[in-house]
Amino acid sequence: MQYMLLIYQPAQPPADAAGPEAWMQYTATIQQDGSMQAGDALADVDEATTVRRRDGQTLTTDGPFADTKEWLAGYYVIDVPDLDAAIERASRVPNVGYGSIEIRPVREM
Q1: For all residues of the chain together, what is the average pLDDT?
Q2: Residues facing 49 on adjacent strands
Q3: What are the angstrom distances between the C-alpha of 91 and each of 58, 76, 96, 100?
């Protein structure tokens, strides 16, 4: 089953935030165990554009949809047997100690 691990980062990460080496090591680990299907870091939230369609008009706004203390920083798509395995992978994401990881099943269409 495929799951998306949505990686949320605080707007102000702590001084001891995980560095690039920790992320490369985590990525290598889930590549080696065969569960990684895809994944990328996202550009900073100030580079986002939100698009809406209202009353027949397309509206764009600079930035994210909502002002929050955490922002979506990246994702992994993993293929694992069940939710327990997805939770295990999410518990090792480098920022789990100061950010949060949302697990969502990928819907089969």
Answers
A1: 93
A2: 62
A3: 39, 13, 6, 9
